[in-house]
Amino acid sequence: MGSNLMNMVLLICKTLMNHMHHFQPKLNEMKIREIIHSSNKKRFEIKNGRICALYGHSVPGIIKRREAVPPKILYHGTAHRFLPSIQKEGLLPMGRQYVHLSADIPMAESVGKRRDDNPAILQVNASPAYKDGIQFYIGNEEVWLCDHVPVKYLKQIK
User: Fold this and answer.
1) Is 156 within 8 Å of 116 (Cβ atoms)?
2) d(Cα 146, Cα 141) in Å, to the nearest integer?
3) I want to staple 123 with a disulfide (CB 3.0 to 4.6 A). Which of 76, 103, 151, 155 is the partner?
4) Would you identify the CATH topology of the domain 73-156?
5) What pTM does this model have?
6) 88-144 residue pLDDT tens
7) Which residues, including other chains, have CB under 8 Å from residue 66's CB and lie 6 or more apart?
8) How does pLDDT run across 25-65, given as a tens digit for each residue?
9) How many CB atoms lie within 10 A of CB 62?
10) Backbone φ/ψ region at 149: left (φ over 0), alpha (ψ -120 to 50), beta
């Protein structure tokens, strides 16, 4: 993350803390840590006293991640209306920096329900994809990231 952006994030965090203190006097760094760690979406982390977005949706440019060996199977929840495109092109970031994959089916269902009450669940055969050169990155305990998942590694299970 660039130093200008990081300075802006620090300024925003300090301003937020100062503002929030008037409304929530008990709000402090420990409370913010508790909120971040108890969130079921795990979208933020605290590193070196800084609040950072894990995925960088609103940050121009790519946030570089360290490659990691994925579990054998990952999952992706999606709306049924997207299946024809996925069956042709595989999973693409679609305006995000990375394709988001879930470590388990319940998380994939939760993600998919944002766009479909009864989402399709795709099994991602991550181990063979990784062996064939697809790079995977850890997002958090429940989310894995990659640049693209070709169709041959996907299987619809729901």
Assistant:
1) no
2) 15
3) 155
4) ADP-ribosylation fold (3.20.170)
5) 0.66
6) 999 998 877 889 999 999 999 998 998 899 999 999 999 999 999 999 999 887 889
7) 137, 138
8) 666 667 767 766 666 666 666 666 666 665 554 455 555 66
9) 11
10) beta
Amino acid, single-letter form, for residue 7: N
According to the 3-state scheme, what is the secondary structure of the chain? Answer: CCHHHHHHHHHHHHHHHHHHHHHCCCCCHHHHHHHHHHCCCCCEEEECCEEEECCCCCCCCCCCCCECCCCCEEEEEECHHHHHHHHHHCECCCCCCCEEEECCHHHHHHHHCCCCCCCEEEEEEHHHHHHCCCCEEECCCCEEEECCECHHHEEECC
Are 90 and 78 in contact, with CB atoms under 8 Å apart?
no
CA dihedral 51, 56, 57, 58 (to 10 degrees): 70
Which tokens sit at 29?
Answer: 């760094």
